[in-house]
Design brief:
Layout: E1 2-4, E2 7-10, E3 13-15, H1 18-38, H2 44-54, H3 61-70, H4 79-103, E4 107-108, E5 111-112, H5 114-117, H6 120-139, H7 143-165, H8 173-199, H9 204-231, H10 234-237, H11 243-247, H12 252-258, H13 264-269, H14 277-289, H15 292-311, H16 318-332
Antiparallel strand pairs: 1-2, 2-3, 4-5
Helix pairs in contact: 1-3, 1-4, 3-4, 3-8, 4-6, 4-8, 7-8, 8-9, 9-15, 9-16, 12-15, 15-16
Protein name: Polyprenyl synthetase family protein
Organism: Pseudonocardia eucalypti
InterPro entries: Isoprenoid_synthase_dom_sf, Polyprenyl_synt, Polyprenyl_synt_CS
Length: about 325
């Protein structure tokens, strides 16, 4: 935890309440210990491949959100909350192993992806191993928690299948994209909020609000990443602009832009992954000067407003204030 001018930064998120920041920081350390302990195997190679991404770090946003949601309830420091947070992160990590195989990725979190360091079979099996251990942890939380994680597994797979299949004839491309993001990203973050509220003793209406908030904010984070990839120069975002263009990923600003009259040249450029720097620059210029980017920002603002509405169900407390700040952060980071 880092402190500066009354702001406490934990895992990339700023908190103004020192007690809340300390609770989240302490909880994340407990989650980290559990992650490392849980994937230990009698077969050393399995332990090595499982720790590959765990040790690579990451912001741990999903366990952080689980812990933060739990601070709404009367038992925010419950061991069950830590167990749930670790289970959610294991599911997330498992999907990354599988995603890298499907995308033929070469890097993940600054290190070689598992499919490159070893091979596709090892990466797939490691993901399966993490899914298994996530399920084992959730089994200790009771049958309702098992049902919730099973429903989440189904949503994750459905989102991946929906993305792989693409929009059908007559489907709206924007609606299809948002459905994919809600399932692939929003569903697991929604479960993180639901678990945090449930295992800290929140009443059902607050658990439901945290669940809905998680799905909305999870989707909004992806949309904000879409905007940043196009709008932000590398020196301010820390990311190379146009990464989605190079990978052939059609994001929300692109889909909006393709609806505009006279988008023929952009449609030609986006027909396949772009490999030449000059063509990436041309596509970025078209996207930055068109209306698609502004429409994506409007969608993001609507999502942030919908997320803040869900917070009205929650009691006034530092954790609710932190969740409200999170909605502002999602929008502000695209500026």
């Amino acid at each position: 935890m880092q402190a500066s001018n009354g702001i406490y930064r934990v895992s990339g998120i700023d908190f103004v309440d020192p007690g809340l920041a300390e609770a989240i920081d302490s909880g994340l350390k407990r989650v980290e210990d559990l992650l490392h302990a849980e994937v230990q195997s009698g077969f050393e190679f399995v332990t090595e491949t499982s720790l590959h991404l765990i040790s690579a770090g990451g912001k741990r946003f999903r366990p952080l959100f689980t812990l933060l949601s739990a601070q709404i309830g009367p038992r925010g420091d419950s061991p069950d909350v830590v167990t749930a947070a670790a289970a959610v992160e294991l599911v997330h990590l498992a999907t990354l192993y599988h995603d890298d195989v499907m995308d033929s990725a070469t890097m993940r979190r600054g290190a070689q992806s598992a499919n490159v360091r070893w091979d596709n079979s090892v990466a797939i099996l490691t993901g399966d191993y993490l899914f298994a251990h996530a399920s084992r942890l959730v089994a200790d939380l009771g049958p309702d928690a098992v049902r919730v994680i099973a429903e989440t597994f189904a949503a994750l797979v459905t989102g991946q299948m929906r993305e792989t299949r693409g929009p059908g004839s007559g489907d709206d491309a924007v609606e299809h994209y948002l459905a994919v993001v809600a399932e692939k990203t929003g569903s697991l973050i929604a479960t993180a909020g639901r678990y945090g509220g449930t295992f800290s003793g929140c009443p059902p209406e607050q658990v439901a609000a945290l669940h809905r908030f998680g799905e909305i904010i999870g989707t909004a984070f992806q949309v904000s990443d879409d905007v940043i990839d196009i709008a932000s120069p590398e020196e301010s975002s820390g990311k190379t602009p146009g990464t989605d263009l190079r990978e052939g990923v059609a994001t929300l600003p692109m889909l909006y832009a393709l609806r505009e009259p006279g988008a023929d040249r952009l449609r030609e450029l986006l027909a396949a992954p772009i490999t030449e720097d000059a063509l990436v620059d041309e596509a970025l210029d078209l996207l930055r000067t068109g209306k698609g980017l502004d429409q994506a920002r409007e969608t993001l603002a609507e999502q942030a407003a919908a997320a803040r509405t869900e917070l009205e169900t929650l009691p006034a407390c530092p954790a609710r204030d932190a969740l409200a700040s999170l909605t502002h952060y999602v929008v502000d980071r695209t500026g």
